[in-house]
Fold this sequence. Notes:
This protein has about 800 residues and is α+β, with helices and mostly antiparallel strands. The chain has three domains: about 1-45 and about 285-420, no CATH class; about 55-265, no CATH class; about 465-665, no CATH class. Helix 9 (about 280-310) packs parallel to helix 21, helix 15 packs across helix 23 and helix 15 packs antiparallel against helix 24 (about 760-785).
Amino acid sequence: MLKLNFLLVLRQIKKDKKSFFINLIGSAVGLTAIILMSLYIHYEDSYDKFNENVDRLYRIERTVQDKVQNQTFDSTPYELAEEVKSSFPEVINSASTASINSFLSIDDRLYPREEGIMANNNFLKMFSFKFVAGDSFNALKKPMSIVLSETLASKFFPSENAMGKVIKVNKKHNLTVTGIFKDYPKDSHISMKYMVSYSSYEELYGAKPEKNWNSNRSCTYVLLSKNTQVDLFSRKVKGLLSNHVDYVDGNKEFLSLRPISDVYMKTLDVRNEAMAGLRNSILVIYLFILVAFFTAFVTTVNYINLTTTQLANRELEIGIKKVLGITKGQLRYQFVIESLVMIIGAILLSIILVIIILPAFSSLVGRDLSLVFNGSGAFFLKIFIASILLGILGGLYPVVYLASLKISSFLQGNTSIKRRKYLRKGLVVFQLFITIPLIFLSYNTISQINYLNEKDLGFKKDNLLMSWVKTPTNKDLERLKVIKNKLLQNPNILNYSISEGAPFLGAGEEKSLGWENSSNNDKIRISSYGVDYDFINTFKMNLVKGRWFSKDHPTDIENSCIINEVTAQRLGWKDPIGKTFDNRRLKVIGVVKDFHQNSLFQEISPLMFTMNLKNEAYMAVSIKVNSNNKTETKNAINKVFNSHFIDTPIEFGFLEDGFDEGYMSALENVMKIFVLFSIISIIMVIIGLYSLISFSLKMQKKTIAIRKVLGASTKGLFVFILKEYIILYIIAALSSLVLTYMLIMELAKSSANSVGVGVLDFAMVISITLFIVLVTISGKIWTASKESPIDAISIE
């Protein structure tokens, strides 16, 4: 029986090759898009889940609340890790960590900066590391110990065992290799290639880790015991800082828990001060899931439409088989076999397409996507089962109803296909209902990327070379001024500024300050750092009110400040000039136009500039260069700095190259893929819409012929038929507007800077969609309205 049905399927394919291959290719393209999107979604959802204890690992975050705002940070006091472990029985283990970015050298061979972290043995015990050499639980026990990734060990010691070797950090401190671990997975919110023992902090930085509850420079992780009631424990931890910090300034600080599996996807609004790493938005994944669902639905509907059309053309075959005694079960069995052959062929073709496309797709989204990864067997089993089920479901509708028809129905031409016109109309509406949100999301995504790329940052990022320079003494600070005078003689160097922080470079001090006429307990949490006279010209910032610091005003050094617009707005100052902070010690002399200090995806926070450049451990040096010979100028600057700071390697980089931690470029790639898949889904909707209309018009041949016989003109028939589909379009458009608006509003929440949605945007998308519909159906309707009525009537 199976062999016979299989032969019948092959015979049918040979008889109608065109329809078979159109259906096969359409289904394969849809499945390919679904598999690629599923691979990306699966990868993004897998972040940090390779850890054995992922369901019990949490990061403690700190929220600062003052009179005018709330801000959440990943940074906490160094002492917090030990405190929570000793105070709460729910905590099995805890660890303090912090990102470092140092130069490593071997025998005077200096390598580029590498990302690493400072950690202790507890960290190794909490997270899943696979060591290939050394003691995985004690490798970070001793001071001046370093643990390398396998790739880094091979790079530094290509032909010898790295264990026990000495590596210099910043050309100054000797670290001993005490362990080698397999490369840490890239699907982690922690980005690092080596680990240095936290007990090395004092020797590396000249001071012990700040055991000060007011200092927040570490990232704290905890491993909770099984069956811990996380909500209850979170409430216990929330007010812990109040036991150690006296909030005389009116601020409040709260602690909260975040599962490490949520750090990558849900922390764009969290300021990363202790742990570097790439972040993504959960809404991006929701969009991909949405498009994948739409694509799966459209693929299934198209399959149903094409299959129904093919089977409708075989009414005579079905009728004859019924006359010859073929049962409904046997007919259904035959058609299900046809459907399975089609979908299995589509699956095999889609796998070939995925293998071909995947390398380019992985490069575009910036992810190491592979057909072989953890859990790949279960993943592909789900894809295969889902595809088979879609194929069976797609084939059930035409199979069940056609096989169930009575012989008299075929003889009378009264098939279920003709009678079920409302179902076809419903499918048309639903296809359009899907199309409008997809077009709107694609349009809004392109607009959002363009908006962010063209957005005024409040300063000019082009041709800006920046670096941190170690300056623990006044002598080091004076060296920077000597270098400044020397470099400004180069015509390719336009401006040179020294500051305690800089846009997208970080740092600066968080202060809680009272302001003029505020009550004793009212404080504002504000970022503050010292700058020099040339800072504003180097970054090409604009003053909206007042003036910049000037040598003509000696009191500027100690008693003046400049704020950004957000600070004035939060304090309700319409005219900030002359207002004061800190018990009238600092007077506002200017207001700088708002600029982005940390990320385009975070709100601009209150900021203050002062002229009091203190002896900080590091100073930010920012140099504006000519657009000509940028590489040569950069190399010359690096050479000058390294000749003056012999003990500490210095490397300047262009701000535009590492802008916003690479998140903008990653987002652009992801959004391009989203738009591409949306376009594929839209094309498949168009194909489905075309096939639905073609089939519907075929079923209306007799009606059209009778109207022509009664005197209807071709133009009149065209308008009559087109009007029906325009009404369906209006129904779909009105019903989809609410969904579209909700999606766009949710998307806008993922960024502090959204392009927004206006009436013109809706009008644009509605116009585009209507144009697509008209182009898709008009030709077919015009052809149908011109057909000779004699042919249609003779068929009947």
